[in-house]
């Protein structure tokens, strides 16, 4: 007998606990028991406890009523058996983060230089005053000034400390934010248990040993337990064992249920026997934690994913053993080109590449600066002046060399864009926080940014596009088609009795309709929404389902065939109480169940023969009109058995049925969806609907949503026709065939999970069209797991979604609403734009500062911007600017352009025009001030001043003007698409305003009171006004630049492309490496290996360390997340509305089947009107 029920002792109400006496078994005994499998486990239970009831008695719980929920009892269970919680890894302390920030090579070089400079400044040799050391000591006016030589070294050290603290604080706050997100996810995960005889949902962490938990299709088990009663229960244990086959669970053969495994079919109840660190998942975690750092690296795969309590990642690919064997074979064949490594997200890859290129340039510039300075000094001192190197002059010369070295390092510091990863992190973290408010719970950080590049969305119908509040609105009962729910008197009473019994018993007992929480509100639907609609029909017929369920409790159900994606029906068998034999109730998709019906109940409630021609007529007259109204049709049927058949032979059991009725269930389209879909279409994103419903219903809903537009040439296919068109004679999917179908496909109906996965994979792998596609997928069921995992961004439903779907997803929609996806697109594009704004600003500063320091040093032997000033500029443009520009809120305007795609360069031509244009302005001003500033302002010349001379007004003005220009240019950087009004929406970003004003205030303090450490001297009001005036000139100059048409400037190059596939060196394409790090490849080409340290992106990716588990999700996923390799190098975008209207196909109302192209009419079996589907026809 398949429906196993353990008999429970009669009259055992809520078990009372004797608080003095301990439980009848220890944690260790239960742990050992849970380590056994199948037969061994059954024998052990019989041997030690008698049966599962024995375990329940020892754990002082009732299999029917559950625990009493008494707080003292629960507390005691916590102490004895532990809590259902796996402690996360300890966060890094602030000091550890400081130490990590100090590892930065650039900072180390600066520290060394500063310490040498400090040491030399305290060393005064005897020959100090001698003339024969040349100009080295000339110009020092008094002893006091000479003593102040230590200040520069100390100031550099101080600046380094500031930079380190800022970096560490950023890391720390990121980690803290991430922990908050983590705990929120943990709190949201609930599980159903029975306490005091009531079915309640409690947070996973509150489950205790002895709880009776209800498990159903789609659950992720939160603790170990033993089955008490189960219906057709199948579990996917691949996350623990690596075996992909689903394991059937039953009391006789294998009652052991393990935490971290997924329920793939059926339902049941279990008694919890191990929680937290004592569960099988917990034991594995303990092993991982104990093995230390090295072990950790080996078994990184089993880390918690985003710390959701008690989840475990598969130790092998979730597709499991079979696919792994296949993969191994394939890998051997294509060892050279197999890129299934973890890859960085699209943006991450482009940034790394760009940072390396900028860093290389900076390194060369700084080396050249140092060499020129030293050569100039040596030639001038020993050649032109003809001096000799004497022992007493050595320290003075060395001091000069150290000064040159410090100048070189500062050029490098300014050149390396260490603010990049910081900007990315801040932007992503800020977006993730704000997206919470827009009902997007982001689980993997890079998904947020990838979403901005999305070109296609494959959406579910139920619950995403529709309200998922199902109601029966039409019915066909007793040969009559009722367009609205009939009165109960109108239906034959026998038929009504059978119908009510069938619906009440043949549905999950966890599905209920509860009274509304608010007065006058709609009743609450709990559980499966389709079943809720049927139960609603029972209530509408003035009957009640509850008494029937009480009369036939779950324990009395003889056999249950639960719903799954291949059956598409559910059946429940009861043993007849009055006599021998059995009765089976079935329900399911009408076209599937009707095919298995041989009789139908007529108006008098008697079965009459139901032939194939009757069925065709019914489809034509009842089912198609219902589907045309956008209704989902469900057939309810039954069958009586006189003798006991072979219950495992499903084909025979689910046959020869008698149809009771067919109902049409309406799931209204969400009112906000059509508007959201038209926004997507304007933004250049194609929305496709993939649903299990029949093609007519799907087409009707797609038309209401606006996915299908009147007059468009589109394809609506059913799963089987889709497969016929894309598979060859051997049944294999061919990319070429798929490329002919997907560009026009808008609706895929009656699709299986495999179809969804095939479609998503096909679109992602396709090379048709201008750019590679970036695909987002929504899903709620367990069967959507593979497609969600394969997609670039997977959205799971927060309310209706199963744990398996949430597990496979990147973003959880907490309100199950399609509009939230549009918000995610907006935030994703905003992240991309924020990074571009920051780059535009940063690169302008980089170009100017490097050129000024370089030429200044070469011509005047001294950088106009001192080391400490450079560090301050660096702080402005890195930390503060990334904070200001990365927190711009998104606007609707972001949805008016096409997606960037994978290969669009980060720095567009317009941005390059802005960068170079502003650099020209700043360089002209700076050099004018450097070489003619003393005449303009009528002050002393600051050039060629000797070592340790006091700060000059001349150089202070240069520094001040430089900073003012950066400040005003920061406002220009807010726009990157050549907009004129740079102030637009500036008040919507208070952070930006605060940063700009704060920097301005600090600059005043530094200049007026910075003195020797900052090489500044106080300026007069006039001088300040001139500095600000020159700064404001940036805004005017910005207007001039935006007036120059970009397309005229052919010489401008874009930068920051993704990396084309052809460029990958062979050794990278072989297996073995953990991740393809583009930076490393660049380095290998250049052979500048030590540059790894200088490319601070490597170190500062640690800023993102708090998000490690989410950013580097790829480790757990067998597939790559979003490849940045397989794309073309020159994107060209189509204008937004390039798609020409073709064959007029849809009228606004119901589709007139005759008008559709044959492909739509027969679900795609025939040829579409135009078969020459060349790639250029499809705007992507």
TrEMBL record:
It catalyses: Ca(2+)(in) + ATP + H2O = Ca(2+)(out) + ADP + phosphate + H(+). It is found in: Cell membrane; Membrane. Residues 48-122 form the Cation-transporting P-type ATPase N-terminal domain. It is a multi-pass membrane protein. Residues 1168-1180 have a biased composition (Basic and acidic residues). One of its GO terms (biological process) is regulation of cytosolic calcium ion concentration. Gene3D superfamilies: Calcium-transporting ATPase, cytoplasmic domain N, Calcium-transporting ATPase, cytoplasmic transduction domain A, Calcium-transporting ATPase, transmembrane domain, HAD superfamily/HAD-like. CDD domains: P-type_ATPase_Ca_PMCA-like. This is Calcium-transporting ATPase. It comes from Carassius auratus.
């Amino acid at each position: 007998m398949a429906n196993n029920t353990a008999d429970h002792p009669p009259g055992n109400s809520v078990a009372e606990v004797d608080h003095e006496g301990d439980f009848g078994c220890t944690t260790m005994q239960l742990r050992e028991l849970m380590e056994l499998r199948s037969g061994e486990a059954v024998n052990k239970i019989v041997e030690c406890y008698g049966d599962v009831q024995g375990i329940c008695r020892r754990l002082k719980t009732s299999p029917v009523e559950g625990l009493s929920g008494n707080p003292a009892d629960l507390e005691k269970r916590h102490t004895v058996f532990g809590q259902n919680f796996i402690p996360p890894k300890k966060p890094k302390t602030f000091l550890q983060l400081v130490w990590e920030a100090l590892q930065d090579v650039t900072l180390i070089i600066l520290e060394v230089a500063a310490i040498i400079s400090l040491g030399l400044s305290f060393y005064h040799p005897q020959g100090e005053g001698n003339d024969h050391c040349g100009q080295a000591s000339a110009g020092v006016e008094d002893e006091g000034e000479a003593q102040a030589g230590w200040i520069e070294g100390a100031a550099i050290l101080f600046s380094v400390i500031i930079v380190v603290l800022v970096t560490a604080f950023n890391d720390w706050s990121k980690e803290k934010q991430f922990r908050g997100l983590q705990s929120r996810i943990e709190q949201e995960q609930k599980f159903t248990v029975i306490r005091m005889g009531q079915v309640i949902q409690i947070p996973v962490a509150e489950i205790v040993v002895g709880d009776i938990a209800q498990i159903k299709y789609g659950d992720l088990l939160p603790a170990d337990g033993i089955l008490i009663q189960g219906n057709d229960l199948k579990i996917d244990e691949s996350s623990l064992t690596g075996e992909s086959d689903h394991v059937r669970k039953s009391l006789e053969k294998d009652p052991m249920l393990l935490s971290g495994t997924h329920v793939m079919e059926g339902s049941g109840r279990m008694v919890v026997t191990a929680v937290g660190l004592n569960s099988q998942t917990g034991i594995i975690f303990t092993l991982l934690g104990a093995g230390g750092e090295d072990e950790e690296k080996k078994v990184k795969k089993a880390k918690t994913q985003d710390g959701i309590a008690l989840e475990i990642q598969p130790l092998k690919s979730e597709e499991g053993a079979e696919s792994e064997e296949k993969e191994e074979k394939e890998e051997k064949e294509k060892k050279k080109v197999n890129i299934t490594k973890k890859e960085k997200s699209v943006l991450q890859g482009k940034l790394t590449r760009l940072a390396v290129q900028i860093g290389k340039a900076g390194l060369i510039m700084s080396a050249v600066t140092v060499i020129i300075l030293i050569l100039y000094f040596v030639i001038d001192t020993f050649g032109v002046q003809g001096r000799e190197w004497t022992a007493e002059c050595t320290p003075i010369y060395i001091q000069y060399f150290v000064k040159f070295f410090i100048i070189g390092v500062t050029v490098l510091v300014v050149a390396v864009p260490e603010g990049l990863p910081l900007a990315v992190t801040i932007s992503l973290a800020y977006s993730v926080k704000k997206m919470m408010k827009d009902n997007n719970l982001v689980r993997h950080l890079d998904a947020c940014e990838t979403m901005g590049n999305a070109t296609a969305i494959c959406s579910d119908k139920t619950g995403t596009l529709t309200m998922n509040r199902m109601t029966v609105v039409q019915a066909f009962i007793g040969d009559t088609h009722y367009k609205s729910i009939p009165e109960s008197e109108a239906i034959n009473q026998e038929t009504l009795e059978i119908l009510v019994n069938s619906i009440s018993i043949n549905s999950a007992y966890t599905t209920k309709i509860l009274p509304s929480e608010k007065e006058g509100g709609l009743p609450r639907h709990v559980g499966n929404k389709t079943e809720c609609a049927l139960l609603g029909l029972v209530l509408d017929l003035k009957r009640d389902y509850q008494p029937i369920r009480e009369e036939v409790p779950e324990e009395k159900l003889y056999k249950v065939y639960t719903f799954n994606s291949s059956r598409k029906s559910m059946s429940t068998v009861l043993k007849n109480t009055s006599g021998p034999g059995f009765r089976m109730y079935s329900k399911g998709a009408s076209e599937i169940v009707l095919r298995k019906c041989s009789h139908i109940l007529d108006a008098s409630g008697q079965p009459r023969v139901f032939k194939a021609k009757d069925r065709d007529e019914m489809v034509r007259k009842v089912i198609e009109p219902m589907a045309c109204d956008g209704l989902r049709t469900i057939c309810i049927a039954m069958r009586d058995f006189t003798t006991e058949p072979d219950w495992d032979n499903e084909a025979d059991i689910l046959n020869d049925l008698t149809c009771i009725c067919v109902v049409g269930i309406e799931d209204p389209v969400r009112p906000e969806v059509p508007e959201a879909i038209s926004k997507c279409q304007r933004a250049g994103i194609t929305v496709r609907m993939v649903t299990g419903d029949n093609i007519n219903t799907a087409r009707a809903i797609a038309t209401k949503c606006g996915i299908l537009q009147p007059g468009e040439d589109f394809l609506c296919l059913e799963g089987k026709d889709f497969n016929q068109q894309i598979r060859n004679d051997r049944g294999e999917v061919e990319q070429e065939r798929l490329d002919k179908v997907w560009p026009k496909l808008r609706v895929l109906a009656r699709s299986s999970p495999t179809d969804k996965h095939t479609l998503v994979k096909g679109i992602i792998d396709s090379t048709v069209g201008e750019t590679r596609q970036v695909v987002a997928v929504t899903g709620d069921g367990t069967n959507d797991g593979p497609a969600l995992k394969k997609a670039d961004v997977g959205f799971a439903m927060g309310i209706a979604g199963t744990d398996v779907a949430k597990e496979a997803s990147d973003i959880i929609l907490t309100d199950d609403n399609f509009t939230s996806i549009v918000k995610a697109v907006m935030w994703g594009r905003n992240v991309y734009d924020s990074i571009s704004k920051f780059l535009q600003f940063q690169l302008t500063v980089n170009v100017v500062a490097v050129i000024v320091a370089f030429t200044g040093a070469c011509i005047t032997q001294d950088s106009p911007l001192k080391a400490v000033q450079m560090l301050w500029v660096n702080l402005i443009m890195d930390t503060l600017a990334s904070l200001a520009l990365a927190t711009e809120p998104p606007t609707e305007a972001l949805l008016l352009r096409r997606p960037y795609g994978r290969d669009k360069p980060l720095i567009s031509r317009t941005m390059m025009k802005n960068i170079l244009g502003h650099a020209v302005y700043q360089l002209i001003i700076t050099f004018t001030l450097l070489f003619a500033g003393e005449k303009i302002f009528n002050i002393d010349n600051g050039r060629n001043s000797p070592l340790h001379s006091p700060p000059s007004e001349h150089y202070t003005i240069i520094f001040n003007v430089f900073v003012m220009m950066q400040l005003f240019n920061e406002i220009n950087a807010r726009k990157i698409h050549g907009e004129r009004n740079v102030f637009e929406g500036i008040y919507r970003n208070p952070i930006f305003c605060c940063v700009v004003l704060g920097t301005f205030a600090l600059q005043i303090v530094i200049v007026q009171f910075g003195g020797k450490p900052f090489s500044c001297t106080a300026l007069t009001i006039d001088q300040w006004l001139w500095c600000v005036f020159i700064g404001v000139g940036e805004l005017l100059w910005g207007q001039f630049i935006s007036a120059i048409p970009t397309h005229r400037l052919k010489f401008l190059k874009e930068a920051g492309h993704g990396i084309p596939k052809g460029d990958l060196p062979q050794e990278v394409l072989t297996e073995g490496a953990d991740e393809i790090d583009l930076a490393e490849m660049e380095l290998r080409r250049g052979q500048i290996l030590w540059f790894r340290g200088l490319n601070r992106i490597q170190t500062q990716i640690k800023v993102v360390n708090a998000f490690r588990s989410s950013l580097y999700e790829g480790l757990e996923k067998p597939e790559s997340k979003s490849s940045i390799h397989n794309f073309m190098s020159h994107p060209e975008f189509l204008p937004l509305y390039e798609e020409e209207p073709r064959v007029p196909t849809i009228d606004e109302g119901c589709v007139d089947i005759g008008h559709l192209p044959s492909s739509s009419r027969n679900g795609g079996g025939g040829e579409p009107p135009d078969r020459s589907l060349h790639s250029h026809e499809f705007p992507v």
